[in-house]
Amino acid sequence: MVTGAAVGSVRSVPRLVIAAPASGSGKTTVATGLMAALSARGMAVSPHKVGPDYIDPGYHALATGRVGRNLDAYLCGAELMAPLFAHGARGCDIAVVEGVMGLFDGAFGEGELASTAQVAKVLRAPVVLVVDASAQARSVAALVHGFVSFDPEVRVGGVILNKVASDRHEVVLREALEATGIPVLGVLRRAAPVETPSRHLGLVPVAERAAAAVAAVEAMGAQVAEGCDLEGLVALACSAGSLAGAAWDAGEALVSSPPPPLPSPAPGAAPPEPPVGPGGPRPQAPDGPAVAATPVKKAGSPVVALAGGAAFSFSYAEQAELLTAAGAEVVTFDPLRDEELPEGTSGVVIGGGFPEVYASELSANEALRKQISGVAASGAPVAAECAGLLYLCRELDGMPMCGVLDASARMSERLTLGYRDAVAVSDSVLAASGTRMRGHEFHRTVVEPGAGASPAWGVRVPERRVEGFVEGGVHASYLHTHWASAPGVARRFVERCRTS
């Protein structure tokens, strides 16, 4: 089998983008199965996911034994897609990138921004189109032709037919596609789906399924190995164009992070407007003055406790890498199991996940709840996103939480979902007032009140509002952010750890 080892440079690592005409076509099964099948043949596979999703990369990591990484042009900017890809693909023979939604679907109202097509073009990667053929025959050729011709800069190099009913059905589909000139690189038969349970926010994360998740990934790998032309897929991957520029590096990103922060406003003044340049506003480095006077620095590497485990499994790998590059020792703790924070904790980061599913267990761990409350009361930095916000509330669905914030949280029938352009309203351990960042929301919960006396962010879409809480060293918000877009977040947080 051809591998990328002979190519010699991460800049030209063989790569494929697995896309589809629409969600539900089988992208995750094919992408994860291909990663597993290639890994089983001894290849070092670099797994990537277009968009902000946290769950699919967990399955990718199981399939490859490497960290699953996101490529989101809305959160990080198109200019960071190739560097972040190259960072993840270091030392690999091949990379597989799972797309998001339909091939040309991206941020609402923003053209191709954050679409699979945009990322494929930036990476100069061929696209494999996964088509759900369950309810069509000859019409598949018209569908594929449309996707091939819609944007000439997107190179569709092959098709994988999913949910094919029979040998006869396969023959009809193959004959129809001959006219398009696009090779069929795989056929997956209509069969009982691999057991990948879902709930209110999509697939159940790997961290919650353990052995069942391993079995699911193995089943996907077997499906793809049996039904797809692995040699043909690898050969197509090897046709990807070379990429210019250096791979992203956390340490270098901290040194070369964007211009100085906007000045903090005088008491009572409105936050300054962020500058607008060509292509619209971009994230700025959230450096600047600390929230409170902290004259004495701590020696050595401050310990940053990073929440993990089944209840808090949502984070981007670059966050921990940036904290480490900024001088912190990052230690993971599990709020479901650990009754104490890591020894010497100077700051706490609590990302996304499903605390609503584990509310009773989190509530029962009273010792840890009280310790986190004490850390927050001391003025030490605490950064919480979405699930972390719920955990810091007084209660969640009536069950006691950490009580850091005078707010209550509950489940809701309404899904809140979408990208957000945000401006920091208050100086915090993460950002100076006026800092512009992009993020996303994804939850079925409500926090009341939705903002504190010093809100974290102001957003304009879907409506103008402020949200989140800045209290002492605490920054808590529903907004998920990708720190690679503004490395100064990590530097500012670690500096506060040293001086609080």
UniProtKB/TrEMBL annotation:
Residues 16-201 form the CobQ/CobB/MinD/ParA nucleotide binding domain. PANTHER family: COBYRINATE A,C-DIAMIDE SYNTHASE (PTHR43873). Keywords: ATP-binding, Cobalamin biosynthesis, Glutamine amidotransferase, Ligase, Magnesium, Nucleotide-binding. The record marks H480 as: Increases nucleophilicity of active site Cys. HAMAP family: CobB_CbiA. It catalyses: hydrogenobyrinate + 2 L-glutamine + 2 ATP + 2 H2O = hydrogenobyrinate a,c-diamide + 2 L-glutamate + 2 ADP + 2 phosphate + 2 H(+). The a and c carboxylates of hydrogenobyrinate are activated for nucleophilic attack via formation of a phosphorylated intermediate by ATP. CobB catalyzes first the amidation of the c-carboxylate, and then that of the a-carboxylate. InterPro entries: CbiA/CobB_synth (IPR004484), Class_I_gatase-like (IPR029062), CobQ/CobB/MinD/ParA_Nub-bd_dom (IPR002586), GATase_3 (IPR011698), P-loop_NTPase (IPR027417). Comprises of two domains. The C-terminal domain contains the binding site for glutamine and catalyzes the hydrolysis of this substrate to glutamate and ammonia. The N-terminal domain is anticipated to bind ATP and hydrogenobyrinate and catalyzes the ultimate synthesis of the diamide product. The ammonia produced via the glutaminase domain is probably translocated to the adjacent domain via a molecular tunnel, where it reacts with an activated intermediate. Its EC number is 6.3.5.9. Belongs to the CobB/CbiA family. Residues 257-286 have a biased composition (Pro residues). It comes from the Bacteria. The keyword Nucleotide-binding applies. The active site is at C386. SUPFAM superfamilies: Class I glutamine amidotransferase-like, P-loop containing nucleoside triphosphate hydrolases. Gene3D superfamilies: 3.40.50.880, P-loop containing nucleotide triphosphate hydrolases. The keyword Methyltransferase does not apply. This is Hydrogenobyrinate a,c-diamide synthase.
